[in-house]
Amino acid sequence: DLYLADSPNGKMIHFSSAVPDRDSKLLKQNNTFINCIILPDSTRTLYLRIKSNASGTVPIEVNSANTYFKNADYENLMVGGFIGIVLVMALYNLVLFVMVGDKSYVYYVAYIIFLGISQVLLRGYGVNFFISEKTLINSYFIPVIRVCFGYSVLLFAAEFLQLKSKLGSYFRYYYILFGLYTVALLAIIIGKIPFAYDLITISASFMSIALLSIGSVLYVKGYKPAKYFMIGFGLFFITVLISIARNRGFIVHNSFTANIIIYSSILQLILFSISLAEKINFYRRQTTETQLLSLTIAKENKKLITQQNILLETEVNARTNQLIKTNQELSTIIENL
Q1: 37 contacts 66 by C-beta, under 8 angstroms
Q2: Averaged pLDDT, 197-213
Q3: Across the chain, how many H-helices and E-strands are there?
Q4: How many CB atoms are located within 10 Å of the residue 212 CB?
């Protein structure tokens, strides 16, 4: 919350409740940028109140109007481009699902959608697209969307890697990851928001390690589509570590570290799309190899049958000749008798 001390009237003006038509100098902004115009040769006193349900650093910059609008334009352009990529990828994979019928595409579309919504909310655009109540967005919308994002990732990974058939009895341990996110969801419902945020971070870390390990094992065992999947979740794990280190103050908060999730998310979308395409090619190659093997077996069977027929015909002819000879000998004996 940012407040302005209105010197002539002695009132405190809350920026979030400022009406642009009434006070053109106080523009309603999102969580990321707040525009406060200070006229030349004048001063203004601002009061900033920060309350967070998740631990993290809060970078504060005071810029001129030109720098402010430059940063705002860059931010809007970057987020707009990211949303465009998310929409295109979601629609493209939805079309692929209709064409192919693989449920991996449905879970991947859900993954893309929740990823896009979570980034839009985290960057403060919730007041523009959803509701203006920031407390409700930060305390409920964002953590719930992040839980749904975790669910979509787990479902996508289970379907894409075919974990139920490949892990066998060990697949029951996979439900532990679902349980962690479910506990976080229950914490949100009962109002334990700080605990929910911490648990979501822990769940994302465990999920990244687990899926990275499973993908590596399956790739070593010959499941080639797991390669790009493994690279994507390795990148996701590194991003989670950098984000935690940035929020804890171990890594400097700058433009790159602030936007690293968007950068890595775009790379993940590309890698996962390649993984899905590789999965189709993998099964297509398997189908082709199976068909070639069946054709080879059919040719071998035909060859064997032909050889057997030739041998059988030879044996029949030999037996027939022997019978004719025997009959001739018997005829001669009968005539002599």
Answers
A1: no
A2: 85
A3: 11, 3
A4: 19
Contact 160, 275 (CB under 8 A): yes
Q: Torsions phi, psi of 50, nearest 5?
A: -120, 130
Nearest Cα residue to 94 out of 80, 84, 79, 104: 104
End-to-end CA distance of the chain: 132
pLDDT (tens digit per residue) in 103-130: 777 888 888 888 888 888 877 777 666 6
- What own/partner pairs with CB < 8 Å and gap ≥ 24 does 71-80 have? 71/33, 72/33, 75/32, 75/33, 75/123, 78/259, 78/262, 79/119, 79/120, 79/123, 79/125, 79/262
Q: Read off φ and ψ for residue 47, nearest 5 degrees.
A: -120, 125
Share of the chain above pLDDT 70, in %: 82
Q: Which of 91-100, 128-137, 272-281 has the highest mean pLDDT?
A: 91-100
- Cα-based distances in Å from 167 to 170, 174, 207: 5, 9, 16
Distance CA 324, CA 18 (A): 118
Q: Burial, 322: exposed, middle or buried (Cβ in 10 Å; 0-12, 13-18, 19+)?
A: exposed
pTM of the entire predicted model:
0.67
Tell me the C-alpha distance between 94 and 109, whole Å: 7
- Mean pLDDT computed over 195-203: 87
pLDDT digits (tens, 9 = 90+) for 88-103: 888 887 887 787 777 7
Tell me the C-alpha distance between 149 and 121, whole Å: 13
In angstroms, rounded to a whole number, what is the distance separating the alpha carbons of residues 312 and 315? 5
41 phi-psi bin (left φ>0, alpha ψ -120 to 50, beta other) = left
